[in-house]
Amino acid sequence: MTTTESPRVSPGRPDRREGKSPRKRSGRPGAGTLATFIAPGLVLFLLFVILPVLFAAYVAFFRWNGLGGVPTDFVGLENFRNLLQDEVFLGDLWRLGLIVVLSLLVQLPISFGLAMLLHQRFPGRTAFRLLFFVPYVLTEAVTAVLFRLVFSPRRGFADSLLANLGVDSQVGWLSDREIVMFVIFGILTWKFFGFHMILFLAGRQNIPDELYEAAAIDGATGAQAFRSITLPLMGPTVRMIVFLSVIGTVQLFDLVYVLTGGGPFHASETLAITMYEQGFQRNQIGYASALSIAMFLISLVFALFYQRFVLNRDLQGSITTAGNRS
Amino acid sequence: MKVTTRRARLLRHTGFYIAAFVTTAFVATPILFALLGGFKDNQQLRENALGLPSPWNTQNYTDVLASGAFWQQVFSSVFIALITTFIVVACSAMVAFVFARYAFRGREGLFTLFAAGMMFPFAVAVLPLFIILRTFELLNSPLGVILPQAAFGLPLTIIILRTFFRSIPAEVEEAATIDGAGPWLFFSRILLPMARPVLATVSVLALVGSWNSFLLPLVVLQKSTWWTLPLGVTQFSGQYASDTAKVLAFVMLAMLPALVFYAFAERHLISGLTSGGTKG
Amino acid sequence: MRNPLLRPRALVAAGAAAALALTAAACGDSGESDADITWWHIQNQDPLMSTWQEFADDFGAEHDVTFDVQPIENQAFKDRMGTASQSGDVPDIFHTWGGGVLAEQVEAGLVQDLTGKLDCIDQINPIALEPYTIDGKLYGMPFDAGVVGFWYNMDLFAEAGIDAPPATWDEFLADVQALKDAGIAPIALAGADQWPGHYYWTYLAMRTVGLDGLEAAAEAGDFSGDGFVQAGQMVADLAALEPFQPGFESATYGEADGQSAVMGEGLAAMELMGQWAPQAQRDNSGTDGPENLGFFPFPTVEGGVGTTTEWLGGGNGYAVAADAPDEALDFLCYFMEPENYSRAITEGNLTPVAVDTAAVAPDLNEDTQKVVDALATATGTQLYLDQAYPPAIGGVINEATEGLILGQLTPDDFVSMVNEAWAAEE
Fold it and tell me: What is the set of domains in chain B, with CATH numbers?
């Protein structure tokens, strides 16, 4: 995790000055004082973040039904080997990839376009901005209950709307294995485009107007300015959003679990749903732990890779809001 | 842009509005469906899914509002969110203060440890968390939700606060030290008040995170005593599965607190998310 | 214009107040329900939902205990019981179907041994106690028992030109085709819930290898026999006719567009379901249900050893948590008091388990009578497999049947999945 700051993301923030570091003067607090400051947070963190992850890594090497006691049936890498042969798990990975690709190709460009639009001055743009963000503040689980009714067959809102337009919809929105992922993607777009739009907008607003004025004086057209100023300077924001989007998708659970439960027959299952089903419904704690570790490794490898090759310097505070999709 | 003629601007604006209104329809339709659907009865929903309710039927809403379960869930959600926020902000502020203002051996290592916490997707930890909470007998207790949530909120909050605390000039601290203030006084009397805006921002983030949390309460809270709204809504939609209008009313009422909160705290929410998302 | 909540001082004050409250909550009782008796049941539809609540209220007032009554939809109930069992803390009274699921809960020490503790138990027909009896000890009290069979809409059958219900599997498939040709959805199915689908595979296995064959397979944990593969193939053949209502893949049993509502509204011709089906059809569709509802046993399979007098079935009952207060036991007997029990039977059209049926239910409704007759003439019964077997195996059977029906698994896949699940259970 780099802590390098990017002047391009937040240019001219006055308070970016490095605080006075190591004090060696009188009044320097003793180790005891420092420890009291750190202890509550550290204990909480070790107990509820580090310990569970280590515990999952340990249990992943056992077969264990979790009903009391401690795991004793050591099976080595068997859980991981089974994972790689599990069609549901492989399907989860495939669906993860599908959502990521669709997000990159459809959802993010839409958000970007709307951000550029709302950056323009026209009457009512604040209202639109506020409105577009609304789905993001709604709880995912609640949203899912709503959309289950929107897409319920016959009586659902979607079918009624189509019927009113004279289309007799035979679409099995949530029941057709071929379609269900695209419906889920549509709902994800509904839920998250506003968030991405706001981030894009913030990135755009950080580009100084002087640059455009200078370009205009040099005779650049709007399109040229967009290509040579906006796009490159938005780079860090774009890369950050892609990052958040991918990490968020890895842990996708609430929305899909409530909407379809991962069905029909795993057609919309995600990694987290498979983990939940195996762990909590089938009592296969060891296997589910192995799946947890796989999720962790996927996030980790992606984060490291991305940081190394894509983000380089413009990532700070990095993974941050990743939790927003869980 | 200064050279655009009136007509070009009009054209451009028309384009803006078309795009904006199409998006508005996309965003608002499902919400309106819930809002209006709650005012219909099931007969109307079946025969008139699109139109306005006729007659307007308030019983679904009043039924939900009159039920103890709904208010209990609102209370639980608020309670859990407030305490989570308090714990995460208090703990983070203290840790961030030390990280920002004092040098000691292992500081960078510790900070990296906290920061690495953001790499752990919550779903990864939920299964072992369940077993740990079972061992501590924290299942079915609000603490079983609050403590893990607070712990997972620490990394982001610490990073944001540390950045802010570092930005406070050393002269402020020197002046305080000359006045005889120790670290506790400096922290609580000077630093925290100065940090108000950023504290508000991280608080809003923590509140929203807790309010929306689903997976953790789902596994921790089996008994309804402490159910939060997201659990309540999913349970309600199962229990009244065949009473669609009532479910819509419940969904709408469950969304309302978040909407109201958003209306008031929009600025903090958005500044929190953008600072979390792009800057840190 | 700032929200007062956002001011740090207010926040700290709120936090401090909340922390105090929290300490109180944590010390008082760490999340135990405030009520003396927690009761989870699956009668989440009126009339019985209200009736159960009334029973609890009346009993509570009489004995000065408080109740936390949770009506939970069937599928959600199973999910939550799974997590609750894992947590080692189950409700004081909870719904049970007996069998392997109950046995696993018993093994985990979660369930109270009711042997000799219920004074009212002699009012219940001993046969009905069987699914709840494990190693000679009683762990649950049934309040209803019945069988699974085809409930069919006689008018729709007539419309398709079918005079008599099918007696063999081939006739059944022919009737399905006839209904389809008449533009009627032959079968309502809740695909997303999985358990309604598993009735098909179970019955086909019962008809091919017979009850003894099924028992032997469960004993050995080996379902590789030809009869089981054949049963899977027949499920796949049925599914290939596309006999189910549109959107069945994501349908649940109880929701507004679910299996029982589709039957209630007369949008499908039949469903394979237990004794509660007619009532559920009315409740979930908000209609009076099909005007002429018939019932026929699952057809026989040519060459198979099973007969139509062997039924898949089971009942509904309640189990009591190991640490439940004695009032919970008293409540079960209060529930079985003739006055209350006969009210439940009449309002909910339950199939009574009383020794003296006539006393509690002098005139049964027509549909219930059909189930009672079927039970009376049964030559053998099999408990629902997803309850009879341990949860991990029942879950696999449910899931694999869904896979068969959706054409995602072959009959051989099915058999090997089930065998693997048994092997893992050893």
Answer: 6-59 (no CATH), 67-279 (1.10.3720.10)
At C219 the three-state DSSP class reads helix
Do residues C141 and C226 both lie within one domain?
A: no
pLDDT in tens, C93-129: 999 999 999 998 998 899 999 999 998 998 898 888 9
Query: A22 or C151, which is more confident?
Result: C151
The shortest C-alpha distance from A307 to chain C (Å) reads 35
On whether the A38-325 domain is CATH 1.10.3720.10, my answer is yes
DSSP per position, A287-320: HHHHHHHHHHHHHHHHHHHHIIIIITTS-SSTTG
Cβ <8 Å between B139 and C75: no
pLDDT tens by residue, B94-106: 999 999 988 888 8
CB atoms within 10 A of CB C19: 15
> Token match 């669906």: residue?
A95
Residues C298 and C282 in one domain: yes
Q: Give mean pLDDT, residues B178-197.
A: 88
Range of the structural domain that residue C299 is part of: 149-312+384-425
| Domain co-membership, C197 together with C109 | no
A26 Cα to chain C: minimum distance (Å): 31
Which among C297, C195, C207, C189 has a CA at the least distance from the CA of C246?
C189
Better-predicted residue by pLDDT, A125 or C134: C134
The reported pTM is 0.88
Give tens-digit pLDDT for C19-55: 544 444 444 343 445 688 999 999 988 889 999 999 9
By Cβ distance, the residue of A37, A117, A236 closest to B19 is: A117
Q: Which two tokens stand for residue B216?
A: 């953790």
Task: Please give the Cα distance from C253 to A265 (Å, whole number).
Answer: 16
Decide if B260 touches A, using CB distance below 8 A.
Answer: no
The domains of chain A are located at 38-325
C247/A177 touch (CB, cutoff 8 Å), yes or no: no
- Asked whether residue C75 is assigned to any structural domain, the reply reads yes
